[in-house]
Amino acid sequence: MQAITYSEYGSPDVLELTEQPLPKVGPGTVLIRVKAAAVNPVDWKVMAGYLDPMLDISFPAVPGWDVAGVVEAVGVDAPHFAVGDEVISNGRKDVVQAGSFAEFIALPERLVARKPRSLTWEQSAGLPLAGLTAFQVLTRLGVADGDTVLIHGGAGGVGSLAIQLAVARGARVLATASQANHDYLRALGAEPIEYGDGLTELVRALAPAGVDVVADFVGGVLTTTLAVLADGGRHASVADGDAEAHGGTWMWVDPSGADLQRLADLVDENAFTIDVARVFPLAEAADAYRLNMVGHTRGKIIVTVDLP
Q1: Which residues, other chains included, contact 271 with Cβ-Cβ below 8 Å and sequence gap of 6+?
Q2: Cα 129 from chain centre
Q3: What's the pTM?
Q4: Which sign does the torsion angle of CA 91, 92, 95, 99 carry?
């Protein structure tokens, strides 16, 4: 099969299109023919070696965790999926080696969920990591009807989904973004706030008694978080480990297929939006990585593999 691989840590220049063996289909595993895969910041951070202290790697490595595709084969004792099922996954494994930037990927079925019917292949590929991050943070924080929630980074892939999930739970949502993205945030159901200098005062103007919940998806905003949090409020960050020292939670996403299925069902029930910023063919994966590294794109960057 064709796959994007790298044989050493480095920049996107280390990525190349190569021929690799077809993955084996072990017990409890499904083989997925990849339709589309998403680029996430963690992908190029792994490739650069930044996560080497946390994650083992075996070279040559196929990058990518997020995937949308069709079940091609099922292993022994894998009863939950059948050949032809349309599925998605955040396929993070214990060892970085056989990722989603390939024609096929084999994954434990416990990491797999059914593709939302309402989304395209490209949108579906962009859902797992961003969606699970938003879903698990809001769930851990107990966001419920009547809460006032502040989301740092509302226009990003995670933040935009967190807004929609919080609104669906009945929360009032305040979200930070640049002025250019304020209409977008309003369309998602949030009250937009300009990030940067004076952020604390802007939040307090909208929520004088403070906010019940703060979800940080950007980092570097802990001072503001603590300044606007109401007494007894809850906060969590996926980007700032210092949150733990101040009564908050620092979270690392669990690639749970069960959580992903609950999220996919919510997407279909609530007609959530997943914006796609750019789509690249597999052979141009390095360019997709370069665009993701620049940042400031609104929506997911997707690599297509087997679309008609």
Answers
A1: 118
A2: 3
A3: 0.94
A4: positive
Q: Hey, what are 86's tokens?
A: 């349309």
Indicate left, alpha or beta for 75 from its phi (over 0: left) and psi (-120 to 50: alpha). Answer: beta
Confirm if 125 and 67 have CB atoms less than 8 A apart. Answer: yes
Task: Give the tokens for residue 35.
Answer: 């339709």
* Residue at 172: amino acid letter: R
Tens digits of per-residue pLDDT, 251-280? 999 999 999 999 999 999 998 989 999 999
Q: E-assigned strands of the chain?
A: 2-5, 16-19, 29-39, 56-62, 66-74, 86-90, 95-98, 104-108, 112-114, 148-152, 172-177, 191-194, 211-216, 229-237, 249-250, 276-281, 300-304
pLDDT digits (tens, 9 = 90+) for 231-241: 999 999 999 99
2, 102 Cβ separation under 8 angstroms: yes
Could you give the domains of the chain?
Answer: 2-127+274-304 (3.90.180.10), 130-250 (3.40.50.720)
User: DSSP label at 169?
Assistant: T
